[in-house]
Amino acid sequence: MIRKYSAIQIRLYLIGLVILFAGLICATWIYLADTDEISDSNILGYEIVAGHAYPITTAESKRYQSEEERMGGKFAPLADEITQWFSSLFHGKRLAYLIAILSIGASVFLYWIAQHPDYKVQDKMNEK
Questions:
Q1: For residues 97 and 122, what is the distance between their CA atoms, to the nearest angstrom?
Q2: What is the torsion angle, in degrees rounded to the nearest 10, for the CA atoms of residue 69, residue 74, residue 77 and residue 81?
Q3: Is the torsion defined by CA of 27, 32, 38, 41 positive or negative?
Q4: Which of 36-50, 70-84, 95-109 has the highest mean pLDDT?
Q5: Cβ–Cβ contacts within 10 Å for residue 107, how many?
Q6: How far is CA 32 from CA 27, 29, 56, 96, 100, in A?
Q7: C-alpha–C-alpha distance, residues 64 and 66, integer Å
Q8: Burial of 15 by CB count in 10 Å (0-12 exposed, 13-18 middle, 19+ buried)?
Q9: Three-state DSSP class for residue 19
Q10: What is the pLDDT of residue 8?
Q11: Rounded-to-integer distance, Cα 93 and Cα 14, Å
Q12: What pTM did the predictor assign?
């Protein structure tokens, strides 16, 4: 049995494939190009735990957090954490993951749209 596709279904499938491959190639390139370096201007010192040195940034210092709470109230440190988390999504390996997930989601969405009954080819034998 030969399956027939309408022109719009073929276009949606092709657009979905292009988005999927372009997104995954870009995500792989970003993932491999990332160096995970923290700028030295934000580092106050290092904390050594089990022989491994972890940098302490200005936003993680107790003085910064207490000043932030004094100036903005109890909600200010939480809002600052949310802002830093959201901005961290747009660089480095997290950006690669985000692009991969969005490209997979967009291609699945286009595949789902192409399966809609209005886009399918009507069988001429069944119409009579």
A1: 40
A2: 180
A3: negative
A4: 95-109
A5: 22
A6: 9, 5, 26, 9, 13
A7: 6
A8: middle
A9: helix
A10: 87
A11: 28
A12: 0.70
Residue 45's identity, in one-letter code, is G
Tokens of 47: 């904390």
Highest mean pLDDT among 1-10, 23-32, 112-121: 23-32
Tracing tokens 């003085």 back to the chain, one arrives at: 63
Burial letters for 50-89: b for 16+ Cβ neighbours within 10 Å, e otherwise?
eeeeeeeeeeeeeeeeeeeeeeeeeeebeebeeeeeeeee
27 and 100 in contact (C-beta within 8 Å)? yes
Residues written for the chain: 128
- Report pLDDT for 88: 80
Mean pLDDT along residues 47-64: 81
CA gap 93, 27 in Å, rounded: 9
Residue matched to tokens 């709470």:
69
Pair of tokens at residue 25: 């190639």
Bin 115: left if φ > 0, else alpha if -120 < ψ < 50, else beta: alpha
SS3 123: coil
Q: How far apart are CA 13 and CA 22, in angstroms?
A: 14
User: For 35-103, where are the E strands, in sequence order?
Assistant: 43-49, 52-57
Cβ atoms 3, 105 nearer than 8 A: no
